[in-house]
Amino acid sequence: MKATDRACDNSPCLAQPWIATSCPPPNQASSEAVQQPRILVDLGGSPQSRFDGEDDTSAAASVVNMDHMELMAHYTFALSNPEIDRDFDRAATKMVLQAALDFPWLLHEVLAITSRQLVLARPERAAFYRAQASRLQTRALSLFNRRGGGGGLQPTIDAANALAATLFASMLGRHLLVDTLESLLQRTGDDVGGASSEAALDRFCHYLQVHNGLRVVASSAWPHLVESELWPLISLVGQLNTPRLSGRGNELRGLSDWVREQHHAKNLTGTASAAADSNGEEDEALKACLEAISLLQSGLDHSGLFSFSSSHHPLQQQRRRLHQHQMTFSWSVRCPAKFNQLVQQRRPVGLVILAHYAVLLHLSRDLWLIGRSASRFFRVVTDVLGPAYDAQLAWPRAVLSDGGSDLAAIGSSAVAPLS
């Protein structure tokens, strides 16, 4: 199998920037197509990855029961954000729960991600907790998109709900990543149980789409947050204040050089001639790819395990490690839209860079949300790329094979020949 220009099946489906909507079937009447879209996030059809935002008015969906009380008692901020400094966990947990009491959509997502964590913590009841997490997140999405009353799909972010909306977007994004990574892990290869690598990559592309939509929610809330009385606590926790640093290490220098070679050969977007590239797509793609690589390098730098070593001071090491984990969660949403478009279009340069993201997943494998997904994520991308790009993927393959014993000794991505 090799990379193609085929975009993800769901890529045109963002009717609003903060939600994903289902595409109407090809034979659906046009009059139906203009109706208010169903809020749908579909990451592969598994129960835990399908969230339908239609209003659920059944009694079972709205009654708070003992199962919900169990989840509330189990929740801490460190459960959804295990990378944070434990000294701030109690204050952050209180902040989240106070906000959740005022905004039911946040409360339901708090319960949903807690239930999702219990899938791993209590494997004997994994099926129950997974299904419960799906139901609760369905309800959370429904409540969020109906907030303010009526049938409108444009929630207003203001000073009163900015914190809750940002926490909701962050928690939902992480929950979606957990489900997406799990969906990649079942099987890889062509047409094995219906879970081919192409289909798995489709699900990751859809996650990119929805996660970028969630960024709109957080961006709308940001101006209100900096004026909030809770801003000092938010800053201390670090959840909403990850620095946007340029990478300084050398590990991905060879990858950057290869991308520049591809740009020189007009291979980034598939534009065949300068005349066809009148809009400067190749230049835009180059800038986007180099930005994506720089963000990856920043995550590697924060780990302190490679060429750009961190301070030996324990507090600084802890803070840098926190930022490395946060880059694992936020890399895809920080990347320029043009880069994510290249991934969705299966452009080889986009997929080669995406394969390097597996290293960040590998470095965060001690977090329950990530686990041991890195090698399987890497295999999905390399299956789609095919063997023609093995030279460009030698460095991440070596890191994943090493198991973390001596990452600094592995060196950096080699300058690969033009292909």
UniProtKB/TrEMBL annotation:
GO terms of molecular function: DNA-binding transcription activator activity, RNA polymerase II-specific
InterPro entries noted in UniProt: Sterol_Uptake_Regulator
Protein name: C6 zinc finger domain-containing protein
Organism: Pyricularia oryzae (Rice blast fungus)
